[in-house]
Design brief:
InterPro entries: Ski3/TTC37 (IPR039226), TPR-like_helical_dom_sf (IPR011990), TPR_rpt (IPR019734). This is TTC37 protein. Helices cover 78% and strands 0% of the residues. It contains 38 helices and no strands.
Length: 669
């Protein structure tokens, strides 16, 4: 076959392809290859025809042979690209990307429009494959080409926006290079916008700031973007809110942060981040109740801020609301779980705080929960403070050997740590080894004199210590006063001070003040509440006693606050208000249905009211619960006598006299 015949055969092959006679085309190409086995066009035509005849492997082989012969010729590369684009096989996508890369090189110095078309296809392919670095680098190259061509600002702006669109939804999972290219795209987009200010530009800025807030290492950039947006849109609160939450989450509240909180609250007094910021400020200023109030209010509006929940837990711990603190820690951990940047440092801190709160709760299960929380702390074994908390949890559970082992290890490895000595002191105190406990607590105070709890336990140690300190409780008083001065929210220490002033100093007025303070700080402290009421009555201040009881009973849910209902019921009984007494004594019995004395008092109230049958039932119930209650048995007989049940009354009187021959009321009856 001559050169002329080869050309004629190739022309025939081309015509056959044009006429969709693909098998005919293959014949012509094979004839050419018999003569010229390295004929580039013949191999390309075979690739085209085989592709149309749905013989992809043959087509691929033909194109690859052509490329081998002429690697810088376009036709075979274009054919291979078309072949890969049509196939549904996922394993060819990597090969297709390589083909597009080659086509970009071949088009670069020639047909720019085709270069852009292939570049778009390559970016789409990378995006499908979630290869975001390749997406960003390829798209940036496209923008660079456009810039070199002198593209208009409006077109470039749209290209930067397209790059943002391609990358922003996956920002969290990108490597640093891709993140930087995304942020660069945002910076170009916000600076190249045609109409400023405008709603589109404002939304673009919001997206930019939201994206920056996902990257903890981009603090300076975030602050700049927020400040730039505030300068352009001074009435929009969004950048200020992001900045406030950023400052809260950063864990350090600077003067700049304070100004930011104030500015946001001036703009919008109901802004969640602003109120949270103010709460953090109160916490720093040791205004703990205000901090709790503001942080709680702010978190009702902005729930997904782990740091704010953590600050709330800290404030609640300061005022000894331990159950509330545990709840806040749980909320913090939940928010951290959904957070886009779960910080290990925050998580460890929250878990430690939760464990500390749980140890202060009297429930049996709380110590178990505390140990579980501590087990979740990363590198907990290397933190001596965490180990000391674990030791306290073991002590609370009654695992004395484990607690002692931790204490001994800490004293050896960290002898200068106050917590090491405090744990040792708590172990000795629980075993009533008061002299050793005194030494340990003094060592703890020597290393940290600002912890109220150490002074409180040293005071209790002196209180129970020996005959000498039992007579002279002034050493205990000194420590209780120090504890109260260091922590004015520590209710228990005011209760101990009340005990001192009532039982040792005989100062009822001062004792009453201490009990009242203790009860105001901890409404669940029945001992202090009861003592405050009793002393108020003794001092002739019935109004104060009643105001305490009224406040407790108003807040009490069914089956709770027995002591308050009982006290007020007895007061009403003494002052001739039997109907009110009945109501309160019934409420007390809902809390404790097996209190025989309470049943006896309820019988008296019914009797005073003239409800004889219910009085009789109440007295009988009291004597059933406690057969030694002679008075209840007598009152039951007296009521039977009133009701005309003489035989029954006589039998009951005789029953009493069998046990107590000289019981005068029964003899009279």
């Amino acid at each position: 076959m001559s050169n002329k015949e080869v050309k004629a055969a190739l022309k025939s092959a081309r015509d056959a392809i044009r006429n969709k006679e693909y098998k005919e085309a293959l014949k012509h190409c094979k004839a050419v290859l018999k003569q010229e086995k390295n004929n580039y066009n013949a191999w390309v035509f075979i690739g085209l025809a085989a592709a149309e005849l749905e013989q992809p492997d043959q087509a691929k082989g033909a194109y690859k042979k052509a490329i081998e012969l002429e690697p810088n010729q376009l036709l075979a590369w274009q054919g291979l690209a078309n072949l890969y684009e049509k196939t549904s096989q996922t394993d060819v996508k990597g090969d297709l990307a390589d083909v597009y890369q080659k086509l970009l090189k071949l088009y670069e110095s020639g047909d720019k429009q085709k270069w852009y078309d292939v570049c778009n296809k390559l970016v789409d392919l990378y995006h499908q494959e979630k290869k975001y670095l390749e997406v960003s680098e390829t798209w940036q190259k496209l923008i660079q080409m456009k810039q070199e061509e002198g593209a208009e600002k409006v077109e470039l702006h749209q290209l930067w926006k397209k790059m943002i669109q391609l990358l922003k939804d996956s920002a969290r999972n990108q490597d640093n290079r891709t993140q930087q290219l995304l942020l660069t795209a945002f910076e170009h987009a916000v600076s190249s916008a045609d109409t400023v200010p405008s709603e589109d530009h404002q939304n673009l800025y919001k997206d930019f700031i939201q994206c920056l807030s996902k990257f903890p290492h981009e603090t300076a950039r975030l602050e700049k973007a927020c400040n730039d947006m505030m300068a352009l849109y001074p009435t929009v609160s969004y950048p200020l809110e992001v900045l406030c939450l950023h400052f809260v989450q950063s864990g350090t509240v600077s003067e700049e942060a304070m100004q930011c909180f104030s500015r946001l609250l001036e703009m919008d007094a109901s802004s969640g981040p602003g109120i949270i910021g103010f709460g953090v400020k109160c916490l720093q200023e040791k205004k703990y109740k205000e901090a709790v109030k503001n942080l709680t209010e702010g978190l009702q509006k902005t729930t997904q801020c782990p740091a704010a929940w953590c600050y709330l837990a800290e404030a609640q711990m300061k005022i000894h609301k331990h159950r509330d603190a545990v709840q806040s820690c749980n909320q913090a951990l939940e928010a951290l779980g959904t957070s886009e940047d779960p910080s290990l440092q925050w998580k460890n801190h929250i878990l430690q705080l939760k464990a500390e709160a749980l140890i202060k709760i009297a429930d049996a299960d709380a110590a178990d929960e505390a140990i579980k929380a501590l087990e979740q702390i990363v590198d907990a074994s290397s933190d001596p403070v965490v180990l000391a908390i674990r030791g306290q949890a073991c002590l609370k559970k009654g695992f004395m050997d484990q607690a002692s082992k931790i204490s001994q290890e800490l004293l050896l490895s960290h002898p200068d740590l106050a917590e090491s000595h405090a744990l040792e002191g708590l172990i000795h105190y629980s075993q009533k080894n008061y002299e050793e406990a005194e030494r340990s607590f003094l060592n703890a105070i020597e290393r940290n004199a600002e912890t109220a709890e150490y002074h409180q336990y040293l005071g209790l140690t002196y209180w129970f210590m020996s005959d000498e300190t039992k007579k002279d409780k002034r050493k205990a008083l000194t420590q209780f006063l120090k504890a109260a001065k260091l922590d004015s929210y520590l209710g228990s220490v005011f209760c101990y001070l009340g005990n001192y002033y009532r039982d040792i100093a005989g100062d009822k007025s001062r004792a009453r003040g201490c009990y009242k303070k203790a009860f105001e700080l901890d409404g669940t402290d029945e001992e202090s509440g009861t003592a405050a009421v009793d002393l108020s009555v003794e001092l002739g201040d019935v109004d104060t006693a009643l105001s305490i009881l009224n406040e407790v009973t108003q807040k009490a849910s069914a089956g709770t606050a027995k002591w308050a209902w009982l006290h007020r019921g007895l007061y009403y009984l003494r002052t001739g208000q039997p109907s009110k007494a009945v109501t309160d004594l019934q409420a007390a019995l809902r809390a404790d249905p097996k209190d025989s004395n309470c049943w006896e008092s309820l019988g008296e109230a019914y009797l005073s009211r003239g409800s004889y049958l219910t009085a009789l039932k109440s007295f009988r119930k009291a004597s059933e619960l406690n057969p030694e209650l002679t008075y209840s048995i007598y009152k039951a007989a007296a009521v039977e006598q009133i009701l005309g049940k003489y035989e029954s009354a006589i039998a009951t009187y005789q029953q009493i006299l069998k046990k107590t021959e000289d019981y005068v009321p029964a003899l009279k009856g």
